[in-house]
Amino acid sequence: MRDWFTKDFGWKIFSVILALIIWLTVHKIYEEPGTSAASAAGDTVTYGDLRVLPVSTGADVSDYRLTQPTVSVTVSGSPDAIAVLQANQIRATVDLSDIETNLELERRVEVSVPPRVTLISVEPSKVGVIVPPKH
Fold first, then answer.
1. Which of 11, 36, 46, 75 is deepest in the core (most CB within 10 A)?
2. Whole-prediction pTM value?
């Protein structure tokens, strides 16, 4: 029985060390996706007081008024994309193409962001539109 422990003792130690290295490598590989997923989401930044622009395909929108002329937009992206991102690259619009006259109604705010940047949230997501009276 004693011979069972002492025979090829060097190979046994080498096998245990090699098994430990393999286990640590596999363990590290399984841990990394969780940490890289958090960093893949990237940095998040919020731009407040972004002006909302009314747009329409045919009508003149200069007389229309928005009850909330600005919104707060939260975006996410890689650290290098967020580092060069400027507020004027984010565009918030309200489509007034099929708007009725003499009504006050709510419209959804559409936000466009540059490539490699993801829109997280818009507050408020809808704004009221005051339609001017027809003469």
1. 75
2. 0.61
